[in-house]
């Protein structure tokens, strides 16, 4: 998908308690913060329709789904920061 097609997903997604923060960057890179640890994980992501696949720089993979403006990922629920 192009940047124009995925621009609604670009930005910071955060759990309700603020502990996990995914920043989806326009260059298909992400930066995940956990608690006070900035850049706990970094890697690439790909979006297909409403599905996201992650591959961090160590080779670990994960995925998630965007539904009704919410990101469901690995048992977590993340909301886009405004």
Automatic annotation (TrEMBL):
Pfam families: Atu4866
InterPro entries for the chain: Atu4866-like_sf, Uncharacterised_Atu4866
Stated name of the protein: Protein Atu4866
